[in-house]
Amino acid sequence: MKILITGGNNAKALKLMKAFPSHFVLLADYGEVPGIITENYAFASLGTLNKDSIAHILLNFCITEAIDCIIPLHHYEVEPLAKSAVLFGEYGIQVLLPEADTVAGYLKAEETAYPDFAVFIQGDRIFSGSDSPLPGNLSPALNGVFSYNQSDLKLFTI
Asked: Model-level pTM?
């Protein structure tokens, strides 16, 4: 599986790579990006940032690079991609975010940093940075990467 993680120039993207040890991870960001390519990961540029056409830029990039799954880390990518998830799905690309109608509830109101993060696919926790307990009442169809504490779950964004 080929996974695209946006915000590739940020340490959070590098931290997230450890959740996918058996997959090829493409770390991408807007503007200049280091030209590093290894067997398990690579860096790539998404070109110039244009917030008005984020979903279009990322869909074209995913199709060109044969991406199977996209994990958006920039806060301004989250809502446009959640709303475009069905379109991405038509091209066989999974957008790892909660449903568009619930995504706003997982965005941070203020910059709260939780030390732990977990990755969910269809309600299954496939990775966790620690054994800390998760908040209760999680959706059985939850998708995304979340930072959390015992009482709160927020999208892992930059």
From this structure: 0.90
Sign of the torsion angle spanned by Cα atoms 4, 5, 10, 15: negative
Quote the radius of gyration of the chain (alpha carbons, Å).
15
Q: What is the pLDDT of residues 57-78, one digit of tens each?
A: 999 999 999 999 999 999 999 9
Question: Which tokens in the block code for residue 107?
Answer: 């965005």
Domains of the chain and CATH, by start: 2-155 (3.40.50.20)
Three-state secondary structure string covering 64-132:
HCCCCEEECCCHHHHHHHHHCHHHHHHCCCEECCCCCCCHHHHCCCCCCCCCEEEEEECCEEEEECCCC
**Beta partners for residue 24, in sequence order:** 2
Query: What type of residue is 46?
Result: L
CB-based contacts of 21: which residues, under 8 Å, 6+ apart?
A: 40
Spatial distance between the Cα atoms of 23 and 156, rounded to a whole number of angstroms:
20
Residue 19 has a pLDDT of 92
Q: CA 119 to CA 144: how far, in whole Å?
A: 6
Two tokens at 25?
A: 């991870």
